[in-house]
Amino acid sequence: MALPKRIIKETERLVADPAPGITAAPHEDNLRYFDVTIQGPDGSPFSSGVFHLELFLPEEYPMAPPKVRFLTKIYHPNIDKLGRICLDILKDKWSPALQIRTVLLSIQALLSAPNPDDPLATDVAKHYKEDEKDAQRVSREWTEKYASVKRICVIGAGAGGLSALKAIVEAPQHKAGEWRVTAFEARNEVGGIWLPAPPTDDPPLTPLYDSLTTNLPHPVMAFTCFPFPPSTAMYPSASVVEKYLTSYAEHFGLMEHIQLNTAVTNVARNPTNTGWTVTLSTGDDSNYDLVIVANGHYRVPRYPNTPGLDLWLNAHKAKHSAWYRHPLDLGAKVLVVGDGPSARDISAEMSTSSTTKTLVRSVPNSPNTEIANIKTRGRITSYCADLSKVIFEDGSTEEGIDFVILATGYELSFPFLSPEILKPGLAPPIPPLPRDTYNSTYNVFPLAKHIFPLQSRYPPSSLAFMCLLMRVVPFPLMEAQARVIVHAFVNPDAINDTEEAVDIITHYEDLRHEIGDIDADAMSEKISKMWHVCRGDKQFSYRDELHRFAERDGLGMVVVPDWIKEAYERKEVLRELWVDLVSKGEADDWVRGVGEKGEHEWVDVLRRMIQYAENREKRLAGKEENYIVGDIAKL
If you count Cβ atoms within 10 Å of the first and of the last residue's Cβ in the chain, which end, N or C, has fewer? Predict the structure, then answer.
């Protein structure tokens, strides 16, 4: 049945010109049913709350009044436990001349002036009559407990911060006005590490070098809800990823919740220990119920504690790779320390520089090799005082070194968290778990699910660390962590301290057994280095476990598909193949138009790339298989 024009006009006005502190939105499937929120009036015991109501227009409307009730619990003499309202215009004083807007304004006024002489909740009315001041105290407590707006602070607007923002703004509590969220980003745009910057700061704002591409295929690393555009290079450049993150923020309406050019300088428990006081670089501070730490872990360079290195650094004969952007004239013999993706990329670039005659790589536990102008050696044990010679772990030396690039990783750093919240240094051996949370610069410990500080000084669900895990597919893992954070914030009891402690101790014992018999200090340091590193397919079981934990949020279960595991397992071979295809000018043929019909097209290309790589390996091993090179993109 079509809606009467009267209801249509009233609805249009409610939406276009809402009364102050009141929202009313009709349901799409039933335009007579409205979701209503009313902000508690200033000066009343209900001022800190946002109350949710349901309003229904019966078929007899406007000859009969709307049916309205509170969904949010409220301590008020004229509103009972079922949310029913004692208001004369909803009963015998109703007139067809009155409107929905009038009803909602009258309910808002009732919050300003409770009337215990015409009660619906007799016990509350009795309390108001006998001791109004104490009754108002209880009303404020109920408002704080059931109706107060929860404020959420997200630190950082890189991939982690953006995924947290999306999970929050899509939560029913945010849509209903129960949550308010702000992400604070120190830089002038979103994107985090993927946002380029010259290496002029100390340390640089990002370690992004000019030639950087992803080290994972983008169908694997993309957010599950937001694929890269069709025809995107399988291993896109940093600028493409930056644009992707900006598009993600714009597509999901996140920008309005982000405050750029604003750093968080301090996070501390407020004086009443009921939340967090967050201080900003602007000098402002505010209270928050939940703080999500997503500031990334690629800002503070890690320097090896190798004898003699400080002398080389002070003499400007060595520098961390955080400052590297492109090949420079660093002399005829350059030493690159490290074996991560950055170390490999920088070594490859520097080895082809016109001024680099010899490129030496220091890779721990590596055999000595020499291919073309690249030498590979083991771990360095000493930098000599002559500023040109180093000694390796096997006793061999390399002389005539002109410059050293230290691609030795980054420290976990949270300068806005005081030692009372996050103690510097290694955590003591367990069991039992320590009372405090520690940052060894390799790990934050102990954290439930690698996210929540497991201690008793504040609710674990009120502080969350994102993106600490290493050797993972980051973006979809961040999605899962964000979902868990939201679920735990809504359901703090979902974090079972005992079960989480058992999981932590079990993981600790497994690592200790794997490491073997070494002294206690070395054991603690070794475990801290391994703690957040996911090896093999553990990241996928971890991601699945996160989704299981959050499954009750109504979005259903999410499981990592097999094709992602398959592509990740072959990621090195796939990237090597892609680099080869790019060098031959064939890469565009593989991805042209792919993705226009959906994700399955990318899955198909990845599997064909794996097949191609396997065939190539067989050919190199002398097991030739027939196929036409020119038609390889059609396999």
Answer: N
Q: Which of 56, 63, 13, 54 is nearest to 31 (CA)?
A: 56
CATH (domain of 359): 3.50.50.60
Residue 558 lies in a domain: no
Residues 414-468 have pLDDT tens digits of 999 999 999 999 999 999 999 999 999 999 999 999 999 999 899 999 999 999 9
Task: Give the Cα separation of 303 and 306 in Å (integer).
Answer: 8
Question: Which of 408, 431, 464 marks a domain boundary?
Answer: 408
- Write down how long the chain is: 635
Residue 284 and residue 261 share a domain: yes
- Tokens linked to 568: 């990740």
pLDDT at 173 over 80: yes
* 562 in a structural domain: no
Distance of CA 404 to the CA centre of its chain: 34
Same domain, 416 and 548: yes
Boundary of a domain, candidates 392, 408, 424 = 408
Domain, as residue range, for 399: 303-408
The pair of three-digit structure tokens given for residue 591, joined into one six-digit string: 């991805």
* Of the candidates 449, 429, 430, 446, the residue with the CA atom closest to the CA atom of residue 438: 446
Task: Report the candidate in 288, 282, 292, 284 with the shortest Cα–Cα distance to residue 270.
Answer: 288
Please list the active-site residues. Answer: 86
What digits encode the pLDDT tens for the residues 568-619? 999 999 999 999 999 999 999 999 999 999 999 999 999 999 999 888 878 8
Give the predicted TM-score (pTM) of the model.
Answer: 0.82
Within a domain: 270: yes
- 343 and 222 together in one domain: no
d(CA 408, CA 337): 7
Residue 138: CB atoms within 10 A of its CB come to 15
**Contact 47/142 with Cβ under 8 angstroms?**
no
Backbone angle region of 558, left / alpha / beta, with phi > 0 → left and psi within -120 to 50 → alpha? beta
Tally helices (H) and strands (E) across the chain.
Answer: 18, 28
φ/ψ region of 446 (left if φ > 0, alpha if ψ in -120 to 50, else beta) reads beta
Which of 220, 276, 245 is closest to 157 using CA atoms? 245
How many domains would you assign to the chain? 4
Four-point Cα dihedral 144, 149, 150, 156, nearest 10: -150
Q: Are 70 and 79 in contact (CB under 8 A)?
A: yes
Q: What percent of the chain has pLDDT over 90?
A: 88
Task: Choose between 624 and 18: higher pLDDT.
Answer: 18
Task: Tell the burial category of 78 from Cβ atoms under 10 Å away from its Cβ (0-12, 13-18, 19+).
Answer: buried
